[in-house]
Amino acid sequence: MIEVRDVRSRADLRAFVAFPERLYAGHPQYVPKLVGDELKTLDPRRNPAFDYCDAKLWMAWRDGQPVGRVAGIVSHRANETWRQKRARFGWLDLVDDREIAAALLGTVEGWAAGRGLEAVHGPLGFCDLDREGMLVEGFDELDMLITNYNFPYYPVHLEGLGYHREVDWVEYLVSVPSAMPANVERLSRVVLDRSRLRLVTTRRRRDLIPWVSGVFGLINDSYKDLYAVVALSPRQIEYYTRTFFGLLDHELVKIVVDRHDRVAAFGIAMPSLSRALQRCRGRLFPLGFVSVLRALRRNDRLDLLLTGVRPDIQNKGVNAVLINEVWKVASRRGIRVAETGPELETNDKIQSQWKHFDSRQHRRRRCYLKMLASAG
Prior knowledge:
CATH architecture of the largest domain: 3-Layer(aba) Sandwich
Oligomer: single chain
Helix content: 25-40%
């Protein structure tokens, strides 16, 4: 018999966060998430997204053993922004059993219908900086810090329960050029001069601090029309700055400003932490931080995390400037390949840039939607 229980206590939350480690134990493509970050994200007292989101967590049990988990989220800000009445599901993990999938998602659907909502979609988090999308292609590829791995049976069960594709994100594996052609360097200078822009020079991580608010402001501005995105609040900006700033390498954060010193574009990359997180199982203490620090200092793989260009200068070659600058650092450090984070399949502006490099689209993620039969 399957029993779906609310996550109520701190011990329940730790069991919820720990479940994937049990499910994917020893799997070569699965990358554990940082346990401390997961606990913070799901804690209403610590994650400022709860200022505008309601959420519930559930775990499924059978014969005294955990067999699945799921989160239900209502982002009131997203519903207001997109004029929808939807709930989100996220943090979905389960053993290969349609009955368990039905019990977990049915619980989210009942919760959503009871709140007068009309549909459930996901996997999504509280905001666009959380992990989103269910893997539907690329199951044999190593996962990333910023994405979720799942077994191939996940989408099969969802589709069997009446969920259908709403949007897809795609990801690319790109070979880092050993050297940038001289004409690319010249073109970068022309693009900057023509648009009266300049690259910010940094010598250490703290040199990035004056530009942080401008970067997040540009995220809000340049991402606002992307699927299910809502603007980050000042408290969220502070939260994400505290959470991730310590992992940033100033040489791999490229910032372009205009003649008034306003952030006009940025690109953020970091050495891959996938293997390091596998070694430490997502725990920085007592010794996991050693693996993470080594990966940050010496690596042959790069994660391309975020890029933003101010709308009025998009399609003017600024993206190429950012990529050129990142490639120079990566090549100097012996990095051979770079992976992009998820990019909307319909975002031709972003994907077109990879056609100029030795690249392949190696993963695809999907957001599913199910309309509820009744609400109220």
